[in-house]
Amino acid sequence: MLDLFVDHNNCDAIPSITPLPDINPNDGSTVEHYVYANGDNGTTVEHLKVIGGSHTWPDENTNAQGVNRDINGCVEIWKFFSRFDINGFIGSPLSTGLINGFSTISVYPNPAQEYITIEIKNPGKDLRVYNYLGQEFNLPTSFFDEKIQIDVRSIPTGIYVISSAYDGGMFKSTTFIKQ
């Protein structure tokens, strides 16, 4: 099934594999995150492989044996699908669009390993980077007119949200992947 979606989206054939933190060592299982990147329009194919668990839903509300408690299946599905629309990755330079009449943030390269560049008109002074657990990261940032460069070398592999306030106290936001 993975091969079918990797081929369909023209993603890299070899994934980057990241072991996720063993948050609950008592569940007897761990999780590896496989990312097949660089697909058409910024798409990725991702697989969360539970090692040592049973055929159960991650973090299901039960006392059944073999349930992985390191991730929540519902949250992980939302984290993946909320990054895309019908045209591909939301926030990709190829798919920059409008939200409530304001241009969205463009981020590239995406995925990134060392630096990301953000294009945003009139960026707010309150530029923030969060992971999906809500932890904020204060990263080295350089401003160049309507482009901002952020050094992401110090943060772990994962999916991050960037938000910036603009006129009226509203926020523009997008996501990026750190490989």
Would you summarize the structure shown here?
By secondary structure, the protein is mostly beta strands. Helix content is 9%, strand content 37%.
Describe this protein's structure:
With 179 residues, the protein is mainly β. It is built from two helices and 15 strands. It is globular and about 55 Å long. Mean pLDDT is 79; it is low at 91-103.
Features:
four-stranded antiparallel β-sheet, single chain, globular, mainly beta, 179 residues
The largest pleated sheet is described as: 4 strands, antiparallel
| SSE series | HEEEHEEEEEEEEEEEE
DSSP E strands, number: 15
Low-confidence parts, pLDDT < 50 over ≥5 residues?
Answer: 91-103
Chain-averaged pLDDT: 79
Specify Rg, calculated over alpha carbons: 18 Å
Strand content: 35-45%
| Tally of separate helices | 2
Structural shape: globular
Output the structural class. mainly beta
End-to-end Cα distance, whole Å, is 23 Å
The strand order across the widest sheet is 8-9-13-12
Helical percent range? under 10%
Topology:
Layout: H1 2-8, E1 16-19, E2 30-36, E3 45-51, H2 73-81, E4 84-85, E5 88-89, E6 98-99, E7 102-103, E8 106-108, E9 115-119, E10 128-131, E11 136-137, E12 141-144, E13 147-151, E14 158-166, E15 170-178
Antiparallel strand pairs: 1-2, 2-3, 4-5, 6-7, 8-9, 9-13, 10-11, 10-14, 12-13, 14-15
